[in-house]
Write a structure and sequence with these properties.
The protein is an alpha/beta fold and 178 residues long. The chain is built from four helices and eleven strands. The radius of gyration is 16 Å and the shape is globular.
């Protein structure tokens, strides 16, 4: 299995998107975009739902969908696959893409995908924290509770906190498997 890294930018109350599923303009912060896009370029593969990928930056992709039974080819690229976790294990998806322990897969969301990988097990989760107000948004993880409490309940511990910009708009929290 590859190393599993999660990446999300959240509002003050832990939201990643507006209630209608659109990406909030206020969360598109240059310093975070630079950090995020560099990490996606570096990763050997990405895993994401239909509306959360960065196709142009990742060669190997695992695209989650309930429209197939288990695993299938992706029409857009020979190096990407469709995966329904209800019908195939993550290890099988990794085998299809020839991802081994020396590789890294970046998990890009959305909410259900971030939630699924809590149980598969993140090695690291990069949580970009902002003071943006999104009272009615969609949470980073399904259900209630602060994201930090959820990560901690799933065996991760806060390893580092650093500002990504001089204005202090984004504080990057790095959570690692304890
Ligand atoms: N702030 C952030 O860091 C951040 C991160 C990620 C996303 N976002 C934003 O959040 C919004 C995401 O929208 P979204 O809710 O549409 O999420 P999404 O995860 O991009 O797409 C949802 C689709 O993914 C598939 N899927 C998700 N979980 C699955 C599972 N457990 N098993 C099988 N298939 C699964 C399903 O596809 P099928 O319909 O094909 O079955 C589902 O309809 C976008 O605006 C995005 O930009 C923000």
């Amino acid at each position: 299995m590859p190393r599993i890294e999660g990446y999300a930018i959240i509002s003050r109350n832990g939201m990643i998107a507006n209630a209608d599923g659109s990406f909030p303009a206020a969360l598109r912060i240059d310093a975070d975009q630079r950090f995020f896009r560099a990490a996606v370029r570096r990763a050997d593969a990405t895993a994401h739902g239909r509306n959360s990928g960065l196709e142009e930056l990742s060669r190997k992709r695992v695209v989650l969908t309930r429209r197939i039974a288990s695993l299938d080819k992706h029409a857009a690229s020979a190096e990407s696959i469709l995966w329904n976790p209800a019908g195939a294990a993550f290890a099988d998806a990794c085998k299809r893409l020839q991802l081994g322990p020396e590789d890294t897969i970046a998990v890009l969301g959305g909410t259900d995908v971030f939630g699924l990988f809590l149980d598969i097990g993140y090695d690291t989760f990069f949580l970009s924290c902002t003071e943006v107000d999104l009272p009615e948004g969609r949470p980073v993880f399904p259900g209630a509770g602060r994201p930090q409490e959820v990560l901690s309940r799933h065996g991760l511990a806060l390893h580092a906190r650093q500002s990504l910009d001089t204005e202090g708009q984004v504080v990057l929290e790095t959570w690692r498997r304890a």
